[in-house]
């Protein structure tokens, strides 16, 4: 979560730590917990419950600051020297096979180890009985009585003297368990380690804890992490074997080839991990959860079924339902099945089936995963046929069918991680629906297509509609309002993804916290190179950087705004003389408004408003069209580099927007249109 971080004091005096530990406070400020197991170990400090901002502040302000990768261990050691009690405290030494109570007599800060001895009485718990007092003494002698600080859990003490010791060890333990990667040492030493690695991994960890990341993506991330660790260990073994052997034998050459292959595999996995750690990119490149979801296809008998879901079935409802939806001439030889809830009906569908949901409020604990071409239809107005999500889950509706239609329904989302409706593959048509969102709204992923008509969407904490590269989205006569952003268009100018095909006609996009429409795209190298020049020459307008090739459009827009301002507020810029009669009539406005003058003002206001909305549509089309042109230029350049001097006109004639007209943008917090660079 986004939590404002307090400014930290730069000095290391005791006063600067008074709000972070217990050095100047009587008694402990930390809780206690009872260790699990059969042995009566003493209680330990409860430190694994820290909030995101507490860990964030500790790593950024006190431990790592702006250190480089090669400086991480030294910075941690310096931090421990300032806060850790060097002796006089007890701890439980925990490993995968045993737990034993020890006393700390010294600390080797540079090695991040504690010098310990067994406590009296001897307390030990293990998976078998082989860890006796003598065995533990021999083990400690082999280790020279030094064990890693992260393997120690500090014994609880009410005085508060060891609060900072317990917290410091917790931060070290969490860092090496959840943040540090063994390959971080190989990273370039030119960047801030906290910004590059610690912050994104810390945010991902807490996003997972707070159920903000889909469970499938969590599994993917953990699997990738395990694979990368395993391959990196193999790579190190191969590299060490090569460096220790100076001969130029065939076996050495084979090892070098194997090492290069392992290195490439490790780098590939590292990039995947970084994409998942980035909250903006994780869903685009790192997550294809529903690619393997298989459709059922037609029934073995070839028959199609109409599934009816009644909240309560009465004779009159059955009569009108049969008259309107189940007419014999249209439903001949079609089987009719009745279900108690919509999810059961959808799960029973095969290709070509139809689900009719009668008026009522249905509470569903599950996910609608629609992989076949089926139709869901509410019998009545959307407010009369409500499907409300109950219980926690990743998502609500997931569509992968070739041709899905959803109409006359109101969908209410609760406790979800993903959007209210995700179109992963195929085409989904949404008509005359109401969507009450909670997280994001509708997501149209790569290679998918959405047609949304005469619908109302509101309440999304993210974007109302997210449009991914290579997708198609048609929005006709919809309302999108009271979301964080109205429509989010993701275009990554990558050769693997075509620009999205979008049509927007007569939509009302209003009362969103940010922009009505936002384009997310990378800053290409030429832009990064000339960023300072562009900022000086063109500047920043309402948090949106106007590029050189878009500056003329911006000037035209600015001139139009000035013209509209002169019309609405002539006293501010109009120096032209006015006719005496009109001047006299309007001057009387404070005492008695003249009907003709009011009518003229209203007409001018309507004309200005209409002109503004027209310009908003034109601005969106022009800027996003320019982005599409850049995509084509980049693609053409790559083809030229590969030796293709003449590109296919059909391939190069992509246009991002098929049509943008008649849309209205009102009362959006940051304006009608914005661009986000990454």
UniProtKB/TrEMBL annotation:
Residues 405-521 form the Right handed beta helix domain. The keyword Protein biosynthesis does not apply. It holds the Pfam family SHCBP_N. It comes from the Eukaryota. InterPro entries: Beta_helix, PbH1, Pectin_lyas_fold, Pectin_lyase_fold/virulence, SHCBP-like_N, SHCBP1-like. GO terms for cellular component: midbody; spindle. This is SHC SH2 domain-binding protein 1. PANTHER family: SHC SH2 DOMAIN-BINDING PROTEIN 1, SHC SH2-DOMAIN BINDING PROTEIN 1-RELATED. It comes from Horornis vulcanius.
